[in-house]
Amino acid sequence: MSRTLSGAAAIVGIGATEFSKESGRSELQLSVEATQAALADCGLTPADVDGLTTFTMDNSAEIALARELGMGELRFFSRINYGGGAACATVQQAAMAVATGVADVVVAYRGFNERSGQRFGQVQNWAAAQVNTNGLDNAWTYPLGLSTPAATVAMQARRYLHEYGATSEDFGRVAVADRRHAATNPQAFFHERPITLADHQASRMIADPLHLLDCCQESDGAVALVVTSAERAKDLPHPPAYVVAAAQGSGRDQFVMTSYYRDDIGIPEIGVVGRELWRQSGLGPEDIATAVLYDHFTPYVLMQLEELGFCGRGEAKDFIADGAIEIGGRLPVNTHGGQLGEAYIHGMNGIAEGVRQVRGTSVNQVRDADHVLVTAGTGVPTSGLVLGR
Q1: To bridge 164 with a disulfide, which of 16, 184, 193, 314 should be the other Cys (CB 3.0-4.6 Å)?
Q2: What global pTM score does this model have?
Q3: Does residue 242 carry a catalytic annotation?
């Protein structure tokens, strides 16, 4: 029997709070606001929702969100591990629940005060003290000072530069493209604040070879997405963004941000996701009009382009050299400004931008965006989506 998820479900509603450095509200309040906005966007109500998905790292319980919004009975709830790697998997879980009849309307949400509250970019002692295997893994590196996301990525970034002859300026071109797109996005924290390559190179060093402008923001805010069946989606206000493919992936000998002991210390987990997305959808890189690539750190955007098949191994520096990832290029990337330019909401704002591209409502709209690729956090077990009209 042939089984497929492709086209069975769609994202029909998107909602977000403003993106700031000091929200002044609880994380639960942020998630409530984003969910209200997403439901209003698609003309549904809290009473229609019978499923919720989020991250294991989210501090707002599904039942708390349901109570605050008056959702009533829930038939499905699910949480995904591995930080930013969970983003697209929340939609995958929602789509699978809808496609199998487990739930009718599922909201995927993520809300946090990641700047005014717990700042991810700083050393987090709890990460090495967790009573689980992630804590055990972190305990090998934290006492030696390898204890921030930038520090762990710097190891892989330096190896990438050594292996392929890339330079810090190649990383900088990603930041410049993101900020150029953010500059025309009124919702972006860095609206009207583009940067130049010289700005990137002059920014202070965080963890060699990563400059400040290689690193994503720390943001306060929330994003919510409403998923329902393809059939129901036809009767709702906006053109549906169909879930053409959805996948998760983990590489061999995978660790959380410190997979240094395998032959390839890059990000092969996104290669697993990419191959599965192409298999499910019957598409390939040549069919993608625009991509939202998880940009917690600029080197990982180059590595993703290679793992996903847009160019060969070590060729991303040449692929992006002529403006290919900017509006008007052959693969515009992060047209909302990405997590470097719009906000860092653990990748959920990137999924919302994918929906806008499919709808044709992005502030940096790409022509003929029939299929949009969206990825989640890399360096950890991750996930991805192909959204389509």
Answers
A1: 314
A2: 0.97
A3: no
